[in-house]
Amino acid sequence: MIVLRTLIVIGLLLLIATPIGYFRGAASMAWVLVAGLTAMLLYHVIYLARLHHWAGLPRQRDLPIGFGSWGQAFDRIGRFMRQEGIERNETAAEMERLHAAVDLLPDGLVVLDRYDHVQWSNRAAQSLHGIFGTRRPIDHFVRQPEFIEYLRTGDFSTPVAMSLPAAPGRVFTLKIVPTSDAYRLLVTHEITETARLEQMRRDFVANVSHEIRTPLTVVAGFVETLIDVELPPEERRRCLEMVLRQTATMQQLVNDLLTLASLEHTAEPAELTPIEVEPLLQALAADLRVVSAGKHQINVEVDEQAALLGSPSEIDSAIRNLLSNAVRYTPEGGRITASFRMHNGEGVIAVRDSGIGIAAEHLPRLTERFYRVERGRSRETGGTGLGLAIVKHVAQRHQCRLDIESRTGIGSTFSLRIPPSRIQPLTDPSTDPAPSVSEPFRRESVENASST
């Protein structure tokens, strides 16, 4: 369009100059053409100068006002700038949304150039590594030797695991992901829970192996003796009884592991039944008196008749474990009391003993699998180290709370605090009794008498 207009203007000059040349001569025609072309040249030079001046101004500037061809050119430039501005704003808004979304990620993200200088980082990376600004080498912020070696080797196929000063007690993996020849992405991912579970798995395998190794060693030793040596009947019987006792220990360990696996499989018991508390405690106390063989005073105290809504087998297992532990760690002649009372709407089933007690530093870890205050003495008493873990899971599945109070040399009290929603008062047991479960518990007593 500009070329066409220019040609039209030149054509008009020729049309004007031709008659003048015809009447005034060729010199006049030449002057007219020179003047017209000079005016046109000045017109273009002025607007080119304006365009050049405008191009050198900051981004936020107004276009010059033009006439004719330059007016159209400036209009097109203006439309282009407005469209570019709209697209730029949309891109900036999209980038802001993207950055805001990336800032919400728990993983730290850092964009590095080919020289490992920080180009951009999200909020998590800034918090974890203390990154601020850009154009600084990443090793100014992440200075752990293992990461420096990771950068130096250039082998980014596997991440490097480490702890960070900004997050003590937590474990992270740092992995560099190449994205192009010019940029790389550093991803910081927390694996604290994964590391904890892996450590638990290793500890579990080690503990189970350790717990099984001792009885297996005893069994193997006695079996070899019975095979290789002719023993008198009394000695032979003693060896077989020891083998039986050790196999029973291993069987109990397997049963407890299966019980724990079953309890962890679901969040709540599949079936809830009203369980009369007093018959339950009386039945379990009677079983433990048999196990104690008269060495302890085992009593039951019930302040109020009530029924507990729960799984009979799980509640039996939990209270039996508490009573068994009390018998196991209470010296001969000690006193053990299983009690029930109501307190602020809650039902409280407590097992109190006058045993050896537990030091305060051990209390937070008592419900861990295989945790033992004194490993040698625990094994001598026949426990598997899983009893209180079972109690903890049963309490959680019944929305109960397990409280532990203990003083060394004085005794311990283990209390199951049952929420009001699981307690049914028995105001008149003779006319409206809850289903009694004392007989099923009593039938299981022989099988579970050595519960951990």
Q: What features would you describe in this structure?
A:
The chain is of the alpha+beta class and 452 residues long. It folds into 4 domains: 97 residues; 86 residues, Beta-Lactamase (2-Layer Sandwich), CATH 3.30.450.20; 68 residues, Helix Hairpins (Orthogonal Bundle), CATH 1.10.287.130; 182 residues, 2-Layer Sandwich (Heat Shock Protein 90). The chain is built from 13 helices and 13 strands. A 5-stranded antiparallel β-sheet has the order 2-1-5-4-3, with helices on both faces. The longest helix is centred in the middle third of the chain and has 37 residues.
- How many DSSP H or I helices? 13
* Helix/sheet category: alpha+beta
Q: If strands are numbered along the chain, what order do they take across the biggest sheet?
A: 2-1-5-4-3
What can be said about the biggest beta sheet?
Answer: 5 strands, antiparallel
| Whole-angstrom Rg | 44 Å
Along the chain, the helix and strand elements come as HHHEEHHEEEHHEHEEHEEHHEEEHH
State the CATH topology of the largest domain.
Answer: Heat Shock Protein 90
* Gap between N and C termini: 98 Å
CATH architectural arrangement of the largest domain: 2-Layer Sandwich
| Low-pLDDT residue intervals, each spanning 5 or more residues | 429-452
Mean pLDDT, all residues: 81
Q: What is the percentage of strand-forming residues?
A: 15-25%
Domain count: the total is 4
Helix content: 40-55%
* Beta-strand segment tally: 13
CATH class of the largest domain: Alpha Beta
How does the overall form come out from the CA principal axes? elongated
Q: What name goes with the CATH superfamily of the largest domain?
A: Histidine kinase-like ATPase, C-terminal domain
